Amino acid sequence: MIYLDSAATTMQKPPQVARAMARAVGRMASPGRGGHLWARRAAETAFACRQAAAELFGITEPERVVFTSNATHGLNIAIRTLVRAGDRVVISGWEHNAVTRPLHSIGAEIVTARAPLFDRAGQLAAFAQALEGGAKAVICNHVSNVFGFILPVAEIAALCRAREIPFILDASQSAGCLPVRQDQLGAAFIAMPGHKGLYGPQGTGLLLCGSEPVPLLEGGTGSASLRQDMPDFLPDRLEAGTHNMPGIAGLLEGIRYVRSRGTEVILRRERRLIRQAARELSALPGVEVFEAPNPVEQAGVLSFRIAGLDCEEAGEYLGRQGIGVRAGLHCAPAAHRSAGTLETGTVRVSVSDFNTPGELKLLTQAVSALLKR
User: Do residue 73 and residue 144 come from a single domain?
Assistant: First the structure.
């Protein structure tokens, strides 16, 4: 399998990730649930993971790094902490359903800061204009999961700080390949998955808490057991129930891999692969590629569509040829609406640090064969 769907989940992991998970299954119990060796080992691993994440993402207190089951889990905590029914919330036009569905469920007034694809200046201006009417919160993804568009989040965060508006960052497609620093952004919350650019397993995620959160789930924490409300300190306040220790152990090794490689190195590799794919696919007749004019505006995600051919059918054909891509709306109809691709969807190619130029060449050859059919 040539795997080009890392925007959903990275499948090629550093080998130490699986080894750490296997060790955890047989040698770790639950942190905070005992003083014996296996409980202590779990607690030490959990803290090491928090500390590694804190250093990578600019958090001075590792306790403010909270384990979640995925980015959606973290975003729900962040959104439901800050937003109530009727509140005015400003979002970009590139958001995932993980943002828009909770806002609709709450009954928030959603204001979309719209700008053309890959127009960073226009996107910033749209946010500035939308914020003239005030907002209870601003929510923005760092990188579009459909088009790889890198939004100007540092500048958007600065707008929010100047107006004292809480900022929530969805770092699902940027954590592990772009600089994501809480100490620089001053975000209220930053949510990210563990199973994408951090090369951890599915069922893991992180929520970086710059503000005090409201629990989404309540139950046992192994601490303050006499209390019948949740502890008032992090991370226990948000981590009810038994921890996913195999997942946390694997995530720790994924984070260590990213830190040893460097996000700049990973991003450069992913960009080279995406530019290669865009160049080769654009040369095929009838293929429309959504490529940023400037490489710095796009991360390791590329969408394309083929004139007269259903994107889902194209994706299924490529799958039968042993090439894993994703086709359709990618859980982000708002992004497709912004780009004018809502009616057709796109075929999405997304790479990781483990893909090669030869694999992208085979993708182009498979699309060429599809066109001939």
Answer: yes
Q: Identify whether residues 273 and 227 lie together within a single domain.
A: no
The CATH code of the domain that includes 319 is: 3.90.1150.10
Is the pLDDT assigned to residue 224 strictly greater than 90?
no
pLDDT of residue 200: 98
How much is the pTM? 0.97
Q: What is the 3-state secondary structure (H, E, C) of 325-346?
A: CEEECCCCHHHHHHHCCCCCCE
pLDDT of residue 223: 87
More confident residue, 7 or 32: 7
Range of the domain at 296: 2-10+263-372
Q: Can you read off the two tokens belonging to residue 210?
A: 């710059």
Nearest Cα residue to 356 out of 272, 282, 287: 272
Among 261, 278, 298, give the residue marking a domain's end. 261
Q: What is the total count of domains within the chain?
A: 2
